[in-house]
Amino acid sequence: MDNLILTDFLTLTGIAFIAALILYFVSQKFHTEEDSRIREVEAMLPQANCGACGRAGCHDFAVACTKCTPQGFAKLYCPVGGAKVMNRIAEYLGMAAPSREKTVAVLRCNGSCQNAPAKVNYNGIQFCRIAHNISSGQSGCPDGCLRLGDCIKVCKFGALSLNPQTGLPQVDEEKCTSCGACVNICPRNLFEIRLKGKNNKRVYVACRNRQKGALARQNCKAACIGCMKCAKLCPEIRIEDNLSYIPDTVDAAKYGRQLAQTCPTGAITYIDEKEKQND
Amino acid sequence: MTKTFPTGGIHPQKYKLASDIAITDAGLPEYVSIPVKQHIGAPAKIIVSRGDKVKVGTLLAAADGIVSAPVHSSVSGEIVRIDRQEDSSGYYEDMITIKVEGDEYIREIDTSGKLIKNIPDNPEEIMQSIRNAGIVGLGGAGYPTPIKTTVPEGRKAEYLIVNGIECEPFLCADDRLMQEKAEEIIIGAKIINKLLGIQKAIIAIDENKPQAIEIMTRLTKSYVGVNVRTCESKYPQGSEKQLITAITGREVPIAKRPIDIGCIVQNVGTVFAVYEAVMKKKPLFERIITVSGDAAEKSANFRVRIGTPADFLINKIGGLTENTAEVIFGGPFMGTSVANLQAPVTKLTSGILLLSGKIAAKEPETACIRCGKCVDACPQGLMPFEIARRARNNDFSQLMQLHARDCIECGSCAYICPARIPLLDYCKISKAEAKKILKKQ
Amino acid sequence: MLKISSAPHISSPVNTRSLMKGVIIALMPAVLASLLIFGFDALKVLLTSVAACVACEYLICRYLLKTAPTTGDYSAVITGILLGFNLPSSIPLWMILIGAFVAVGIAKMAYGGIGKNLFNPALVGRVFLFISFPQQMTTWPLPHPGKFFAADAQTGATTLGILKHLDSESLSNTLTKYSYQIDNIPNYLDMFLGNTGGSLGEVSALALILGLFYMLYKKIITWHIPFYYLSTVFILTSIMWFYKETPELDPIAHMLSGGLLLGAIFMATDYVTSPMTVKGKTIFAIGCGILTVVIRIFSAYPEGVSFAILIMNAFVPLIDRWCIPRVYGTGRK
């Protein structure tokens, strides 16, 4: 029996030794030298791996940060982490911190269940991308929100939720990092990353329908009909293909309330976060 | 000996309710709305204006570029509207609406029922006739026929396959056409043969059309080089790639066209249209459409003018019944749901189906039980369950390895799935993503 | 209001529930056989097992996962019947409850429910009981066909058990209680009909084969797994027998004894835990066959089917990775 224990002991030790040798050589052979700053920078990032910065993920962004010139660094920005994270990274790398104004995603459609009631019964898979290819949607508006929530599924920050009353997705300003995932996924390109604006006051056209007024109104009460009333108020507003577009540069504090009141269909949406909070 | 493709395929219930019903004329509606884009490629350019009087066969819109096809008037009357109108899917397309007055044809069209057998000698002349007639692939893809029948430099056509398969349930339009216009189709095949500079044409028919096979076999005896091949009746036998494999044993390599392996496939409807265009100078302004469905009162095969509203045809077979849940343009596998019943039929509408809630029920999606039926059913050798699993989680990292872009969207996987997972939808999402990736590269 | 949906607009009449129902129907001949052979005890075991499995799944879905219960697809019923089939009729009922909990609760629901489990739930339940309670699990009541309420049935050994202990000298105490004599080996007809000791479902080859044909006819399973599994076992045992390694048991007896048919027809063919492609199924089935023979002939256990299938279950993800179908247009090998 002694013999048996001895052989067992020796065999196992031998196996362990050989395995250790293999591990050692493999780790030697495949060892790569990495800039230690990459790990440090990566640790500062939000680790959402959302790709909002235009890179494949946080690691890729960290690599880009450490390898670029100061001019190149000014072009890099992590919208999720915002100014706070970028300042830290800039400090660590000894470069000037890039600055960006705060932005948020907005839904440019007001085709709620009330404004644009369903005309057909969509019975397929709950994916906007599929519904978009099949038909113009339940309401019949070819440019309106399909209300199936691809954007909600793709949002990594829980900033989007389906409003049970309107049937439309709504954006939680606090949580939205303006990563742009919703902009990319929406088959009708309804989301837009807009400046948060001074005092969180924003004004935009919540419609993308380019049909003529009467046709657009057939499907949705809140459609932009291209009536030009807003353009008369504010010369910066452009109207193309029966659709108005209010650029970011329009001063929401100055024109916002007036524009929203002027719009005959209610397509222009004015948001005053402070007012909302006071309510 | 019946032929078929080796991998995958399913055997759905056939529902060929209209296979014994002769083709009848659907008659003229009050108005027709003719879309200017009824094909793959650029929309045709409108050359008429409001108030113009047109006859049957008048050119309304000319082809815009090579990948495009002209559109002709299907009725005689006055143009009352040229604007964007709702099509069958609810989207808005440019259409020309004509108020029907009488039924006057343009002079060039030979309206006699006489069979003409002497094929023009000049291939250029034939090609010009086909191009002017606005013929596109009537099987459903809508690829302009002139391009498909042109053999590119360095390639050689070996086989012309006339696709008489019609593997979609309910549809019988091609079946009836083969029974009633067999000789015209054979002559049409010889015309395309001349264009391609080959002698051989194979008419492929699936075995659930015994009358068509009998008639075709009898008539092809007097035509050199034209042969009938019987194929197993299996879905999707009528798919171009699968049919080529069934007939020739060759496979179309990935990202290649059938002509690269010497094959050209034309639908029987297209071949018939080629005959009419070349021999009768008749542009493509009407087609055969099966109007059927399990919720329909009766079934019919209509000869329909392009632009006829769907509800005009539905009313001809007794109107929308109580238990109609869904109206489909095309077959139940690859067709599209109709949101707007006033939508016009186009060159690509092979059928209008009224499906009951029982057939068209979409049961809720349940968990995948890994039965592998989708893998067995896929005629392309893909793994739909794996593509779907990743698409659901927005994981598009393995799309190329999974060959998502090689999906032919036949829907066999979604049909067979016992867990009712909408596999085809997930595959379509993945396919779109794969195309995006390819574009980037 | 018209419906709008994506293609395809029709779907096959077969869904998960109807497939599972088909399997249950295929199991019915064997259920009847077990009732005929082991009487009321068999009914008790089967009912307890099915009820426990279904209840377990329902309760876990309802109260632990807080999702809609998936008991409606009948898969828990199948697990229940198969678990019952793997137990001797004399087993105490509380053990069945433990087995059902292990089968459904641990082997199935802990992995995420139907479709996600790696191992066959019924087999995990059986093996758990087999290792935990070897004595009760290997006490095989002798068949008493016709006598439905026979009390205090006699116990005996299974064919494989007898053979396993004929040539081994040191036997564990629990297993030496019974007389292992060569005369006790039943004849082919008894084995075919099920007039022999064993677990509830495994004894009657006839009933199991009827179930196989039903499933093949209804296209619930393909022939690959049962065929390759059984032929592998047949070929290997023939070789053994030919070279006089196992003179006592010929290949035909091997086919008819133990849980081989039950395993090859109902356990190895489980959708969730078997490979998807034909190539994969072939490898899986041959692997099961080899392991079964190895365990039966060279190990201390008389029976190897459940271990063989469980071991091969673990290889399924790997097999599925290897055996992907050839994509159309990628050139033939």
Helices and strands of chain C, in order, run as: EHHHHHHEEHHHHHHHH
The assigned structural class of chain C equals mainly alpha
- Between the first and last Cα atoms of chain B, what is the distance in angstroms? 46 Å
Major beta sheet summary of chain C:
2 strands, antiparallel
C-alpha-based Rg of chain B, rounded: 21 Å
Oligomer: heterotrimer
Describe the 3D structure.
- The complex is a heterotrimer of chains A (279), B (441) and C (333).
- Chain A has 279 residues and is an alpha+beta fold.
- Chain A contains 12 helices and 9 strands.
- Helix content of chain A is 40%, strand content 12%.
- A two-stranded antiparallel sheet of chain A has the order 1-5. Chain A has a two-stranded antiparallel sheet with strand order 3-4.
- In chain A, a hairpin with a 2-residue loop joins strand 7 and strand 8.
- In chain A, helix 2 packs across helix 3.
- Chain A starts with a helix and ends with a helix.
- Chain B is of the alpha/beta class and 441 residues long.
- Chain B starts with 22 loop residues before the first strand and ends with a helix.
- Chain C has 333 residues and is mainly α.
- Chain C has 2 domains: 121 residues, no CATH class; 130 residues, no CATH class.
- Chain C contains 14 helices and 3 strands.
- A two-stranded antiparallel sheet of chain C has the order 2-3.
- The radius of gyration of chain C is 20 Å and the shape is globular.
- Chains in contact: A-B, A-C, B-C.
- Chains A and C meet through strand 2 and helix 6 of A and strand 1 of C.
- Strand 2 of chain A pairs parallel with strand 1 of chain C, so a sheet runs across the interface.
